[in-house]
Every structure is written in structure tokens, then in C-alpha cells.
Amino acid sequence: MGMNRMLQRLTCVLLGAFMFLGCSSNKNPNQISLSGEWQFKIDSLDIGVSEAWYAKNFDDSIPLPGSMMEHGKGFEPTLQTQWTGSIYDSSFYYDGRYEKYRQPGDIKFPFWLTPPKHYVGPAWYSREITIPEQWTNKKMELTLERPHWETTVWVDDNQVGPSQRSLSTPHKYDLTELLSPGTHKLTIRVDNRLDEVNVGPDSHSLTDHTQGNWNGIVGDMELEASPLVHIDDIKLYPDVQNRSVRAVVSIGNMTGETAAGELRLSAHSFNSDQTHEVPALTEAFRVEGDSLILEINYVLGEEVQLWDEFNPALYRITAELLTEGMESHRQQEEFGMREFTAEGTRFAVNGRPVFLRGTLDCAGFPLTGYPPTDIPEWERIFKTVKEHGLNHVRYHSWCPPEAAFKAADRVGIYLQPEAASWPNHGVTVGDGQPVDDYLMEETSQILDEYGNYASFVMMASGNEPGGRNQVEYLNNYVNHWQEEDPRRLYTGASIGMSWPVVPESDFLVRSGPRGLKWKHGTPGTMFDHYESIKDTDMPYVAHENGQYNVFPDFREIEKYTGVYKAKNFELFRSLLEENGMKGKGHDFMMASGKLQSIMYKAEIEAALRTPGFAGFQLLDLNDFPGQGTALIGVLNAFWEEKGYISPEEFRRFSDVTVPLARIEKFVWENNETFRASAEVSHFGPEPLEDIEARWMIKNTDGKEVASGNFDTRMIPLDNTIPLGALELNLSEFEQAQRLNLEIEVADHANDWDFWVFPSVSPEPEMAEIHVADSLDARAIRILEDGGKVFIDAAGKVQYGKDVIQYFRPVFWNTSWFQMNPPHTLGILLNPEHPAFEDFPTQYHSNYQWFDLLDRQQVMWLEGFPDEFEPLVQPIDTYHLNRKLGLIVEAKVGNGKLLMSSTDLTNRLDERPAARQLRQSLFKYMSSDKFEPPYAVEMSVIQDIFRKQSERINFYTNESTDDLMPENQD
Questions:
Q1: Is the pLDDT of residue 637 over 60?
Q2: Which of 93, 459, 888, 894 could make an SS bond with 963 (beta carbons 3.0 to 4.6 A apart)?
Q3: Cβ neighbours, 10 Å, residue 666
């Protein structure tokens, strides 16, 4: 404890009755902060209640706010730890490759970040509090902003009401009857088990996949005194059309007598360039019982400023209760004047169409293990979201603290919290389980606590529920809250396509309109998702778009300076080194990241091209720390850039205004005419008048090879707004090259690469090259004699044939989906290598590689020298990190070999990219530049064509089923 803190505590003791002045969080005489050291004891046997621990002192201590995990309390994680969360791929517990990572003291779990301690069960927290004389005849309330998650409170030896178990809102206890001036003992039991109410072990509100099932209390912890006649609650219902707000003020009366006086309302704007002071309004009141509800229509006037993403103007309303013969009581609330509605299949904010460009927040907080409760940190996150062109965040199966709503109000972000549940694995809704009542209670508390915030525009019960009777239950859920609180829109749950629709919902969040629906499997931008949404008469938001996996950034490991450690990253890095690829991690991350960016661009543009669409929700803009380690973000788990795409680059295809092009394909021949039709998606603050739009095509040197202007026009608030068509005769491009189409609309631009290949390629010089489809006897003899051999091994590969490669990368990750294909993350190559002199390429996958990668075989290069570098290297899933090759060159025997597992032989008249790559490779082999830098034994090459059963098994088959935790099977 620091010297200043010790002096402060000593001062508090000496002041006695004035202790509240020195220990309150903001020098408010009616508040006492409870931050500081608390006595602490773990109750792993759950005997504390029966043994009356509330009457005992504990030997251990812990600082609060905080968590047990944060302060090293709990048990070391072991192979027997009973985690809160599903483990779908249990191979870690028995696979021989992982044996070294299962050793006690240094276990490296691959499926999520590793906490220093783990504990599920009750824990007890206790301290003394001193109540000043000035609090006599006042209401006294305890507020615990974010406990995790069930709390039971005692004052001295008396339990305070029933336990509370909200995962989303502060726990508040009325201590008035149990506190008197002087010293008392305050004891809090926190229980983080799912025994009584199971919201689902994978719910992001408590799962070890994300924030973790921590035990503790974070955020504000305080006692507050208020007059016996006081304001209990203020609910604010903006009326945009009439420029007024309906204030519903709940007044509590604990005097036992009739109380009368006046309620005075005043308001002023903030978070805006313009100041607006609203004249005060006074209303008389008379409370004859213990409570009274006043409804007051407070006119704000024509100067009122409306709230939205472009102008997040806010108001602060002050309600002051002036009671005859009693101290006054004040309460403030923040709100924004906004109306969020469903207009057909679109959302509207204050009557203006809005397109939701969203991401999920899955509650990953590696430094603390729990969500921040301060506004600046949430503002940082939301500003990052907006820097990437997005305007919306969905909270997958959890609800953030109040600071998130305040920050979103200030930044201008539309939020969809959920009632802290994923009731699917081991629990269902609508079937009479405790979660049914819990979701109604939790939603009620969320609406009561955060309902005034302008950013809170949508609400769902949770994610992907199970249950035979879920539709009936969720219909009733939606109907109830539509009637109870119409300030936002409601849906039953966020769901995939196999879930039934809840027809009473105001909107859908469903996975139908997502994915890359390329015509005939050829990449292009002609498609949209209209067929998926055309029969829906409500706003339809795409559920969990993207999920494109990327290789780990091992530089992140040192960033985990808080509670969680990235031992999963350490494991993946070790596998990489063991397989002869030490130092390749950053290159793999960058190359796979470029492919991921290309995929997200295609995904988002398809959504923006869909007429009548309401929006999308990415999974995620930032990485997901669990479920097998799902690195699917262009940002890391700390909401920071990784280096392969900037916010400015991302925003070109995800912004308020986005130029779009419908292009049939990205690979063309020079006997064709390139054609594209241009359009724009625009959901800005207002239509764009007399806008000029233009297009240009440039080569890789930046030289403009064609350009043109579209007709000047007005751009309304809509998408699929046509700009015009463009075309370019490609006959002048004799050499293979990459071109770039860019479309500009006002200050917004977007672009697309496409490739032009000769329709007739010159026959490569092959006189000195033996071509084969395997390492046959003749090929061996030629290599031994010092000749050159090209092997097109496509379809003949045995070692590596189980590695399934698509053009697109791994979906989510291979662990969570138990090695469902694809298994690779794109390719890495050196574009300056002379083998690619006639084949335009970057160091990563792009669309000209589609035909050469999609469903094409790869070679597993086990047995090749550690230093061996393939010409084209598929990037394996980081859960295995096998050294793979698509095209390799080597000195074999006395000769030189170039071998490809992608098909460079068949239907070349229909496959211009394959034809061009073949020509470039043979030109290279025919030149004096063909000098492979690595020597490989003939037997190692032969192994590529042998079945895996004919080789030494890489895996051990030892049975270690006893290592698995009982509940993780």
C-alpha cells in the first residue's frame, strides 16, 4: 500500500464521524466509496453460509474493485480444470504433438488464453464501514456496479434481502433498516457457478473463451445516502416529432406519512458545437403512500438537437425534488433525442434511412479479464470502430457496463446488447428451465438501467437458443418488451439459418445473406443477397459475417502484460519452429492478412450491393480469443492494427458512402473487353447534390491507361444507385499484367484489381525439360544424369492429400470445427523470384490465384531440410503448422527439379492464369536463372507420392483419455 493511501486511511479513522468526507469517491457527503482492501476467503467447499462466515474475520485480503484472477487468488490451471466453455477438439489432451505442452507448471492450452488462476464457486469479501451521524433518517443503498455474478450481502449478522444475480447491471441493496451511525461489518458472498441459473457455458458474459468466468466485483462500489423522500428512477421517452421528452419519474417515500412538494426539471445540451439551455419546468407532487409515478411532458423547443451517428448531440436532464420540510434530492440522466424505427426492410434514425455496418464485441479483455467500466476506454474502442467506417456494435450474448453506453452516445454508435445468454449447450429456452425467468428479469434490469441512452437502439435475448418451444417463448418475449419499452426495436435472438424465425420480431439477425456467392465459382462482384432477403418484410441484418481466419501475430505475445497470457500463441510458435519454419510467423501473418482483407472487402461490398438490405454484423473487426483461438479480426484482441490493412484502406469499402462496381470476373484475356457497371451506396446525413463521379484504370506503375466521367447526378440515401457503365478493350495489353479500376464519388473512392493475360501464350522452351506427373523411373534417371525435370503432381500427391485447400482461408478456426475444410490460410511467395517474371503476383493470394489454389492439392514437405523454402507455400492452419508446398524447386541427384501440386496441364485453353503460370515457370526453367538453392534427397521427393500409411506416423497413438476433465468430452 502506498504512503498516500495509508495517510488517507489514517485520516479517515481519526475523523470518525466525518470519515465519509475523506473516503468518498468524489467528496460527496452522501457517498462513501468502498474501494480498498477487503478481507477475503475462498469457499470451495460451499460451507460459508452454514458456518456463518459473515460473522467471522478472514486472514487473507484482496483489493476491490477487482477479481480473484487479477490478484492471484484461486487454483493453478491443470489438465483437470473444469472450464466454463465447450471444447470441441479435445486432441490437446491426448495428441502426441502436444505432450510437451501438457506438462505441469507450463501448460499451454491451444483453445484460449491462459489465466494465472482459475476458480468457480463462492468467495467471501468483508470489511468494516462507518456510517456518519448525518445519515440518520436517510435511505442508504449499496451499489456494486459489476459483480460476477451472484451476490449475497450481510450487514453484521443480518442478510440483506434475497441474493441478486444480474450479469449485466449493478446489484443494489437497500440497507436502510440495518445501518445506523457507527461501525458495521459489511460482508459480500460472490458465487460464479452456473448451478442455479444456466445461461449457457459458452455465453460471452461468463465463458472462459472470452472474458472468463471470473469471481469478484469491478466498477463503482459505494454506499449512498438520500432523503427519505427521494427520486428512485427517471425514464425518458423522446418524442422527436413534437420536440419533447416524456419524463416518467418514480418518487419513493419512506417516511410513512404523506409528503408533498415540487419536482423541478431542467435540461441542457452537451457533446455538441451548439449550446441549448431548456427552460425549467416545475410540477407539484403529493405522495400519500410509499411511492408515486409522475409523467411530465417536457417540451425542448424548436432548437432541439437530434442525436445520430453524424451528430451525437446529447442532453443532460436534472430532476430536483423539493419536499416540504426535508432536504432536496437531485438526480441526473443523459439522453439523446432520437427515434429508431423499422421502415419496411430498412432501419431509420429520426426518419432518415440508416444502413448498419457493424461488428460484434465478444467480451475479450485480455489485460483484466473483465470489461472496462470507464468511459475513455470505451471511447477508444468506439472511435476505432468508426475509423473503420462502421457505425454499429452487437454484444454477442452479453451486455456491457454503463460506461459503454455513455461512450457510444458520445461517439455516435448504434448498439445491440443481449441478455447475457447463449442458451444452447446444456440449456434451452421455453422449456421451463430457470433461464426462462432469468432472461425476462435480466432484460428488465438492462432496460431500467440503460434504457435512456440514445445508442441503445436494439435488443435481443441472446445468441442461437435451443429449445423445442423457443419460438413461442421468444414471441412472448418480444411482444412483452415492445409493449413495455418502445424506445428500441426487439428481436427474439441472433441466429443462424437453421434456427426458426421469431415472427413477432421487429427485425431479423440471421445468417442467410452472407458469404461469397460467386457465379459458377468464379470470383466477381456481380452477386448480392437479394434472394435471401426478398421474402422478408422487416429489416434483415446479416448474422456474423466473415469469420476469415488469419495467422497469429507472435509480436502480440509481449502485449499480454495483464491477467491473461497468450500461451496458445507460444504453442503455435513452437510448432512452427519444430516444423522448420522459425521466423516465418510474421510473413505468414502478413500474407494471410492480405487475403483476409480481400475476403472482408468482398463480403462487405456484397452486403452494400443488396437492395433493401438493413445491414451486417462482422464476426469480428478484432480477434476472438477463444473457441480454439479464432483470429478472425483485422485488429488484434486489443483493438490495435496488425499492419496489413489500415483504417483508411478498410473504410474505402465500408464507409457511409462507398462506390461499388459489378464486375463479372477478375481474370481476363486480351481478346476480351473488360466491362463493369458502377453504383454507389450512400447512407450519409443527407443526399449528395450535383455529385461528379469518375473512373480510371491504372497499371501497377500508377500510369493511367483509361478513364472517364459519369453523368453528374443527385445521390439519394439508398444503395444500388446506378452511376453508369464502363468498358475497356484489352487488346493493347500484350503482356500479362495487373490493372486497377478505381471509382470516385465526391470524396469517396474504392478500387478493384483485375488481371489481363494473353489469350495465346508463346510455347515455352521445353526441349531440355522432362515433363512427368510423378517421380517415375525416367525422371529419376534424368535427375541422376544432371537434367531438368518438371513434375505436375496434381492429383498424384499422397503425403498432404488430407490437407484441403480452398482459395478462401480457414473459417473461424480448425479446432472449433474439428478440422472441417479448408485447412489453409492462403499462400506466401517471393514475387521478385524469376519464376514469376511473366506471372504478375504479389506475395500473397489474390484473385488471379483462384483457379490455381481452390480445391487444388498441396504437398506436405516433412523431411525436407529445415531451411527449405517453397516457391509457393500454402500457409497451414496454425494448430498444425505443417510445412506445405504448392510449387517447389530443388537440386535432386545431379539435376534440377521443379514440381507443382496445382494443375498446370489440363484445360489450359479455359484457364488463362494456369496457362500463364506454366509458361512463366517453363521460361524460368529454360533460363540460366534456374538454380535451386536447396538440395533434397530423391527419397524425400518420392515420399510425396507415398501414402501416409507407408511413412512413419507423425502422431503417437497412446491413450491418455484420463487427462480429459470429466465435463470436457
A1: yes
A2: 93
A3: 19
Query: What is the secondary structure of 198-233 as a DSSP string?
Result: ---TT-TTT-TTTT----EEEEEEEEEEEESEEEEE
Taking the CB of residue 8, how many other CB atoms lie within 10 A of it?
13
Surface-to-core class of residue 807, CB atoms within 10 Å of its CB (0-12 exposed, 13-18 middle, 19+ buried)? buried
Distant-in-sequence, close-in-space partners of 834: CB < 8 Å, separation ≥ 6: 924, 927, 929
Decide if 903 contacts 794 (C-beta within 8 A): yes
Half-sphere exposure of 952 (CA within 13 A, CB side): 4
DSSP string, 107-146: ---SSS-B-S-B--SEEEEEEEEEE-GGGTTEEEEEEEEE
pLDDT in tens, 361-397: 999 999 999 999 999 999 999 999 999 999 999 999 9
401 phi/psi in degrees, rounded to 5: -70, 170
Gyration radius (Cα) of the chain, Å: 32
User: What average pLDDT does range 219-237 have in this prediction?
Assistant: 98
β-sheet bridge partners, residue 860: 884
Question: Which of 143, 142, 121, 140 has its CA nearest to residue 216?
Answer: 121
Rounded (10°) CA dihedral 779, 782, 787, 790: -10
**Measured distance CA(658)–CA(747) in Å, rounded:** 10
- From 815, 623, 633, 811, select the one nearest 86 (Cα to Cα): 815
HEC assignment per residue over 544-571? EEECECCCCCHHHHHHCCCCCECHHHHH
**What is the C-alpha separation between 676 and 744, in angstroms, rounded?**
14
330's grid cell: 437531485
Name the residue among 152, 122, 125 with its Cα closest to residue 37. Answer: 125
Please tell me the distance from the alpha carbon of residue 478 to that of residue 462, in angstroms, as a whole number.
Answer: 12
Strands (E), 441-488: 458-460
Is the pLDDT score of 97 beyond 60?
yes
Local confidence band at 459 (pLDDT 50, 70, 90 cut-offs): very high
Taken in order of first residue, the domains within the chain and their CATH numbers are: 24-208 (2.60.120.260), 229-325 (2.60.40.10), 351-554+593-651 (3.20.20.80), 666-757 (2.60.40.2550), 769-950 (no CATH)
End-to-end Cα separation, the chain, in angstroms: 45
Q: Does the pLDDT at position 453 exceed 50? A: yes
Q: Would you say residue 935 has pLDDT above 90?
A: yes
Q: How many CB atoms lie within 10 A of CB 478?
A: 23
Proportion of the chain above pLDDT 90, given as a percent: 92
Q: d(Cα 47, Cα 806) in Å, to the nearest integer?
A: 55
Distance, in Å, from the CA atom of 774 to the CA atom of 942, rounded to the nearest integer, reads: 8
pLDDT single digits (tens) 866-905: 999 999 999 999 999 999 999 999 999 999 999 999 999 9
> What is the spatial distance between Cα 305 and Cα 467, in angstroms, rounded to a whole number?
45
723 three-state secondary structure: strand
Q: Look at residues 589, 577, 594 and name the one whose alpha carbon lies nearest to residue 552.
A: 589
Return the C-alpha cell found at 407.
461512450
390: three-class secondary structure by DSSP:
coil
Against a cut of 0.90, is the pTM above it? yes
State the number of CA atoms in the 13 A half-sphere of 276 facing the CB: 23
Model pLDDT for residues 549-585, shown as the tens digit of each residue: 999 999 999 999 999 999 999 999 999 999 999 999 9
Residue 19 above 60 pLDDT? no
∠ CA 735-736-738, nearest 5°, is 125
The 10s digit of each residue's pLDDT in 786-819 is: 999 999 999 999 999 999 999 999 999 999 998 9
Q: What pLDDT is attached to residue 951?
A: 57
515 DSSP assignment:
S
Task: Report yes or no: 509 and 543 within 8 Å, Cβ to Cβ.
Answer: yes
Do 630 and 624 meet the contact criterion of CB atoms below 8 Å apart?
yes
Instruction: Tell me the mean pLDDT in the region 430-454.
Output: 98
What are the φ/ψ torsions at residue 182 (nearest 5 degrees)?
A: 120, -165
